[in-house]
Amino acid sequence: MSRDQAAKFQSELQTAIPSFGIEALTKHQMTQLVRHYAMLCRWNRRLNLTRITEPRAAANLHFAESLFAARFIAGAHALLDIGSGAGFPAIPLAVARPDVQVTALEANQKKSLFLKEAKDELELANLKVVTSRLEDFDWDGYEVLTSRALDRAEAILPSVIERLRPNQKLMLYCARELMAKFEGKVKYKIDTHPIPNSDARILAIFSPGNRPQTERI
């Protein structure tokens, strides 16, 4: 990746941050995210991590969207990202919230290797990478679960939602169409937050601690 491309990405991310209502990042945090983007572009030449690498699109659709959820994990100590793939939202959240222990769960061996390399490259002491399917992983100890681009989400997530305890919540980055498929299957209210700069995408927060669901999604 050229210096111009890296500089363009950083400029686009700096522009996106206030429009997403994200707290300003430190110089070190911005450097970490630029390095993640550079790794993503380099690895993407031989491993299909994402189709979105253009600086502006990546800054908005991957990084700023991931960071948008940081405001909703205020008191959390441990976060599990289900199906992290290229590291979204796990890596941006680990960068933005060094006080939170973030686990990136990824079943694909090659993608998991990328995540481990990114952890080392960015020196993220609060990030742990686990190569496993969710079905084989004990997630009881996590207060927050996230999912952004999980394969077979419609099949996997209903059982996750059903198992959530009152002190846990699932934050799902998704299109409104996916949310409609959960209608009638969840016994508590779902909080939805439109993702800035997007007409269709939302952050849906499933929490058993919420009052019973009385309205349609």
Write the layout of secondary structure elements.
Blueprint: H1 3-19, H2 27-43, H3 55-68, E1 78-82, H4 90-96, E2 101-105, H5 109-122, E3 127-130, E4 144-147, H6 153-163, E5 169-175, H7 176-180, E6 190-194, E7 201-206
Parallel strand pairs: 1-2, 1-4, 2-3, 4-5
Antiparallel strand pairs: 5-7, 6-7
Helix pairs in contact: 1-3, 2-4, 2-5, 3-4
Describe what this molecule looks like in 3D.
The chain is α/β, with parallel strands linked by helices and 217 residues long. It has a single domain, classed as Vaccinia Virus protein VP39 (Rossmann fold), CATH 3.40.50.150. 39% of the residues lie in helices and 17% in strands. The protein has helices at residues 3-19, 27-43, 55-68, 90-96, 109-122, 153-163, 176-180, and strands at 78-82, 101-105, 127-130, 144-147, 169-175, 190-194, 201-206. Strands 3-2-1-4-5-7-6 form a seven-stranded mixed beta sheet. Strand 1 (78-82), helix 4 and strand 2 form a beta-alpha-beta unit. Helix 2 (27-43) runs antiparallel to helix 5 (109-122) and helix 3 packs across helix 4. The radius of gyration is 17 Å and the shape is globular. The model is unreliable at 213-217 (pLDDT under 50).
Provide a compact summary of the structure.
With 217 residues, the protein is of the alpha/beta class. Helix 2 (27-43) runs antiparallel to helix 5 (109-122).
